[in-house]
């Protein structure tokens, strides 16, 4: 357990107050005054709607970097594109590579391991791998609730599925969705994913017969917003965790029909067109090289006709899933306008990790025999080749720490607070930045102690100054990643990546955003420096060496099997359905 930290003396981020001061110092005088008044207004007081923004945080699941129209994609996303046109797009924003760690970091402003979710939601009996949010972190809901916000959540939680670990246990007033990892769109699919369940608040419920999660979550969110509007002047924070477009490929026929046949141009053409559009939009520099097609992917021109039709159809269903997210963003926007809250709502939209290549080339196909792909009894994925296209122009996928795993779109829209319209922000940012951003804008406090427990200081920095104006060249800010042994560190434009037991590679993102030229051999001192920084971060955050963690799990399984020789029914389900073992 190479990176196991000395527990004594948590390495608090003592920079936080200084960061805030720097933040304020970089604002223009007028905006600084506004920012300060917002920041100080709500300390220890109940905020009133209008003096601070409402907050709508929307998280897509497994959506690729280039899927949205405003990030170069051909999928029809007019409502999200309109938010981008009326606000900001970040071009170098990062998540934590996978569902659970990203949710942990987004919701707490800490790195995932610090919040107790170093991997997924299994409990390894280790503080940094306990599999649910711990008592050393504060959630966004707990933070803004203290400033008088109504705290609402719908969708996928996936940071603790046992009772006592759900949204209402972590600061939310209302929740409708699943505490689990999702992987279900229609009610029929619960016959396949028996471990998935839905709750309303703290009560397990039967979802409606006409369940289609993207629509149903929105129905519930609209109801929450209507109720919040009738209950005084409290601002709201709504966290919307989509299940879409995560596998399985399941969409409504009308949405699929829009894309039927459209992808018969193939993944190579889609990649080229998306990059060209990204260059035109300024999402990437004009000289950006397309990363090579994944070596496991064949050229589209080599695929037999029959395969092409089926593969194009898979991508059509995936596109339909994203189209449906966009339609429902439109419903949320319409509701905010109806409630006269649109101008003063900060909307943030992003994805929890890069596109999924699970199922490998061609994707997987499971579910009930004969069930057509796209329907509730089918269970299929789009496959590696399309994931390669959806992450254009980057390499790799969900779970990886190359750009294709950790780069996400981020749209920020807030007419009353962000003057920019349709601008880009190229500063590197990370989901850990959302906590200090919202704490500042909501006039909330970030306490040293919460419910009697010492809380780790936030790791991120507020995005508020960047909302105001682009800050110029990238600072030497250091960001780190670890997910099941995949490592990365970014310092300014340097990025070092090591996959599994592989050696560190080094990239200069200023000239090589797509990580196509490893320059580690030319810069041995920089690699040593970055590797040392990463090791210190890993030790500080409770990251375990992946091999050691695997051994620890095997040892625990042996001990448990001696104690409990009989298999639980859930284990039998997993054996019958091995693709689901990875917990998504
Ligand atoms: Ca995900």
Explain this structure to me?
- The chain contains 16 helices and 19 strands.
- It is α/β, with parallel strands linked by helices.
- The chain has 2 domains: 16-472, Alkaline Phosphatase, subunit A (3-Layer(aba) Sandwich), CATH 3.40.720; 546-582, no CATH class.
- The chain binds calcium ion.
- The site of calcium ion (CA) has 7 residues, from loops.
- Calcium ion (CA) binds at residues 61-62, 98-99, 246, 352-353.
Features:
four-stranded antiparallel beta sheet, Alkaline Phosphatase, subunit A, 33% helix, disordered C terminus, 2 domains, 15% strand, binds calcium ion, alpha/beta, eleven-stranded mixed beta sheet, 584 residues
What is the structure about, briefly put?
By secondary structure, this protein is α/β, with parallel strands linked by helices. It has two domains: 16-472, Alkaline Phosphatase, subunit A; 546-582, no CATH class. It has 16 helices and 19 strands.
Topology, pairings included?
Layout: H1 16-26, H2 29-41, E1 54-60, H3 78-85, E2 88-94, H4 99-108, H5 140-145, E3 150-156, E4 174-178, E5 198-200, E6 203-205, H6 213-230, E7 236-241, H7 253-259, H8 267-281, H9 305-338, E8 345-351, E9 365-367, E10 378-380, H10 384-390, H11 403-406, E11 407-413, E12 423-425, E13 429-430, H12 434-442, E14 449-450, E15 453-454, H13 464-468, E16 478-483, E17 486-491, E18 494-498, E19 505-508, H14 524-541, H15 546-563, H16 569-576
Parallel strand pairs: 1-7, 1-8, 2-12, 2-13, 3-4, 3-7
Antiparallel strand pairs: 2-11, 4-5, 5-6, 8-11, 9-10, 14-15, 16-17, 17-18, 18-19
The chain binds calcium ion.
């Amino acid at each position: 357990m190479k990176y196991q930290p000395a527990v004594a003396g948590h390495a608090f981020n003592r920079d936080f107050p200084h960061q805030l001061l720097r933040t304020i110092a970089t604002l223009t005088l007028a905006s600084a005054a506004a920012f300060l008044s917002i920041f100080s207004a709500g300390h220890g007081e109940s905020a009133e709607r209008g003096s601070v923004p409402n907050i709508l945080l929307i998280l897509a699941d497994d959506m690729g970097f280039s899927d949205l129209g405003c990030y170069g994609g051909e999928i029809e996303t007019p409502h999200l594109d309109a938010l981008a046109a009326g606000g900001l797009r970040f071009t170098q924003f990062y998540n934590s590579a996978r569902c659970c760690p990203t949710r942990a970091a987004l919701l707490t402003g800490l790195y995932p391991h610090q919040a107790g979710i170093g991997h997924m939601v299994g409990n390894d009996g280790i503080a940094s791998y306990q599999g649910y949010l711990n008592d050393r972190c504060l959630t966004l809901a707990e933070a803004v609730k203290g400033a008088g916000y109504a705290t609402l959540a719908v969708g996928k939680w996936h940071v603790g599925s046992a009772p006592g670990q759900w949204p209402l246990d972590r600061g939310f007033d209302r929740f409708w969705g699943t505490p689990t990892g999702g992987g279900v769109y229609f009610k029929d699919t619960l016959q396949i994913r028996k471990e998935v369940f839905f709750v309303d608040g703290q009560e397990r419920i039967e979802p409606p017969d006409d369940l289609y999660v993207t629509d149903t979550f929105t129905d519930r969110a609209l109801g929450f917003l209507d109720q919040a509007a009738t209950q005084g002047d409290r601002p709201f924070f709504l966290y919307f965790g989509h299940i879409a477009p995560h596998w399985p490929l399941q969409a409504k026929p009308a949405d699929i029909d829009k894309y039927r046949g459209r992808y018969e141009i193939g993944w190579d053409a889609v990649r080229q067109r998306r990059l060209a559009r990204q260059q035109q939009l300024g999402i990437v520099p004009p000289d950006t090289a397309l990363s090579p097609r994944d070596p496991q992917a064949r050229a589209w021109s080599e695929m037999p006709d029959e395969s092409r039709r089926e593969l194009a159809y898979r991508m059509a269903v995936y596109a339909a899933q994203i189209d449906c997210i966009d339609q429902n963003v439109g419903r949320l926007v319409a509701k905010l306008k109806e409630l006269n809250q649109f101008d003063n709502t900060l909307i943030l939209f992003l994805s929890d990790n890069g596109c999924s290549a699970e199922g490998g080339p061609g994707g997987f196909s499971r579910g009930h025999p004969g069930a057509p792909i796209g329907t509730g009894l089918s269970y299929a994925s789009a496959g590696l080749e399309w994931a390669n296209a959806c992450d254009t122009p980057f390499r790799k996928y969900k779970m990886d720490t190359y750009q294709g795993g950790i780069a996400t779109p981020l749209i920020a829209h807030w007419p009353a607070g962000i003057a920019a319209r349709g601008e880009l922000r190229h500063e590197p940012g990370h989901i850990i930045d959302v906590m200090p951003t919202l704490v500042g804008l909501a006039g909330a406090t970030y306490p040293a102690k919460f419910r009697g427990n010492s809380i780790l200081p936030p790791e991120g920095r507020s995005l508020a100054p960047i909302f105001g104006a682009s800050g110029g060249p990238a600072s030497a800010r250091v960001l780190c990643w670890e997910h099941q042994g995949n490592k990365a560190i970014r310092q300014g434009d340097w990025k070092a990546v090591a996959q599994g037991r592989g050696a560190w590679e080094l990239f200069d993102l200023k000239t090589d955003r797509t990580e196509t030229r490893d320059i580690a051999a030319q810069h041995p001192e920089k690699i040593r420096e970055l590797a040392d920084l990463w090791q210190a971060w890993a030790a500080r955050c409770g990251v375990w060496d992946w091999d050691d963690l695997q051994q620890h799990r095997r040892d625990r399984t042996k001990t448990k099997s001696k104690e409990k020789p009989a298999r639980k029914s859930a284990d039998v389900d997993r054996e019958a359905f091995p693709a689901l073992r990875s917990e998504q």
